[in-house]
Amino acid sequence: MTDSNVIERKSLHLELVERIRPLIVESQLLPGDKVPERELCERFGVSRTPMREALKVLASEGLVRLEPNRGAWVTVVTVEEVEEVFPVLGVLEALSGELACAYITDAEISHVRRLHDQMMQSYRDRNLADYFKTNQEIHGAILVAARNHTLTNACRALSARMQRARYVANMSEKRWADAVSEHEQIIQSLEARDGKQLSQVLIEHMKNKKASVLAWLTGAAPKTPSRETAE
């Protein structure tokens, strides 16, 4: 039986990027650690050439650091990086919201509504992992609806740099409740196709996410809600 981890089609470096990125975001590969290239090549059944190409892409996203003759290392998120990236990401997300309201179809709005309802169920279940996953899908769907490839590429690149910090950062019960309230405003603005309102909500949403990540980095974050589904 073939190992489910092995890539059976042509070894494309972008496929490897999609496999390795979650390992970094979810801290299976820890900040500051060397990327185990040989182990990953064996795991995914690829040669070192596409692996190295994949690591170049991840380096461009800020997830790894390449060192000549020493390999690749998982980067460490810093306060300075958060302070620099989040304001730019907030502006891009706000623009995506404004454009999405101009171009989004009824079917796409229905899709985002289903994702929103699914995310709300994860919140009620206290399942932070599923909540986070669906949250990212919502932001991704709005970005796609903006119909702007340049914006999509720029936003995804910056989001990837911050996704790891957003995934592991402590989030208090109050912050989680506030984030849910913000998402209620997001879906309402989207359904009303109110681009200006959605843009403002997304700006504020990203400011609050930045504050949560900074609190985690500086050790000022409150206790994290349970990441497991409630009994």
From TrEMBL:
PANTHER family: TRANSCRIPTIONAL REGULATOR, GNTR FAMILY, TRANSCRIPTIONAL REGULATORY PROTEIN. Gene3D superfamilies: GntR ligand-binding domain-like, Winged helix-like DNA-binding domain superfamily/Winged helix DNA-binding domain. PROSITE patterns: HTH_GNTR (PS50949). It comes from Hoeflea ulvae. Keywords: DNA-binding, Transcription, Transcription regulation. SUPFAM superfamilies: GntR ligand-binding domain-like, Winged helix' DNA-binding domain. InterPro entries: GntR_C, TF_FadR/GntR_C, Tscrpt_reg_HTH_GntR, WH-like_DNA-bd_sf, WH_DNA-bd_sf. It comes from the Bacteria. Residues 10-77 form the HTH gntR-type domain. The keyword Transcription regulation applies. Pfam families: FCD (PF07729), GntR (PF00392). This is GntR family transcriptional regulator. The keyword Membrane does not apply.
